Amino acid sequence: MAAAGVLRAWAQSGTRPPRTLALADFADEEGARFGRSLFGSSTVAGSLEAADLAGATDAEGRRAAEVLAECGVDLNRMAAASARLERVGSYLELHIEQGPVLDSQGAPLTAVTGCAGIERLHLEFSGQAAHAGTTPMWMRQDAGLAAAETALAVERIATEEGGVGTAGRLDMHPGIVTAVPGGAVLAVDLRHGEAAQLTRMLERVREAAEETARERGCELGEESIWRIEPVAFDRELVDLAADVAGGRRLASGALHDAAAIAGVRPAAMLFVPSIGGVSHAREEDTAEADLRAGIEAFARLANAVASRD
Question: Is pLDDT larger for residue 27 or for residue 22?
C-alpha cells in the first residue's frame, strides 16, 4: 500500500516522475508451506530454479508443482520471470521490524543494512519403535529423545555463537503415547549476520546431532531445505534510507524479498516498529502513527532515489 501511495501521489501531481516507477508484489515471501522462502523474488532474481522445488512437498504430501499449477504458475516456465528485472534500476521495500528493537527504543523507523544468512534443514533420526511399557529404558533406541536433545543443542549453540537457532517442528513416529518413537524429524532454522559464524553454527549442530544419535543408538539423516548467505544492502541506498529515518540503522534477522533482489540490483529497506516485538503470532501489530510515519518516509526515499543523477 505504501508503494501504491507513491504511484497515486505522482499520478495526481500532473507531472511525470524523474524515472519510471513500478510496484512489485512478490508471491510467497515466507515459504512456510514448502520451506523455501522468497519464491517470487528469488525466481525473478534468477536464484531459484524449477529443480529446487521439484521434489518439495507440504505437510499433506502435496507437491509444489501441483499447488502452483492451481494458482496458474507453471514451475517449468517460471525462469522467464527474470526478464521483468531488465529495466529495474533499484528496489525499495517497507516492512515491519518483526522484532523488539525499535519498539523498545521508542523509534518510529530505521534504515535496514541487510539480512542475516539462513541455514534451514531437516534432521532425521531413525531408531526402533518399541512398546512403551515392556521395553526397559536402557534398551531403547528412542529417536524422539535424540531429536529433543538436538533441539536443546540448537538453542545452546546459537546462543554461544551470537546467532539465533530455532527447532520449529518435531514429528515423531509412530506418534502414539504407548510407543517409543522409532523415527523423528526435527526442522531446524539457523541464522547469523556473518557467514563464517553461520557455517560454524551449522557444523556444530550437525556434530551435536551425530553425537546424540550415536548415544541413543539411532541413525542420522539430513535434508537441506534452503539456505541463503548474509546479504548487505546497497551502501548508497542505505545512506539515503538512513537520511529519512533520522540516521538510524538496523540489521534484519528476518528475511525479506529485498535480500533476493539485492543479489542482482541495488536494494534497501525501511522498518517500522512491531508492538512488543511480536511477529508471526496473532498479536502482531504496529501503531497507526508508526505506519503513517513509515509510509511518508518510504515516499521520501522513493523520490530521493528516483531523483538521483
Answer: 22
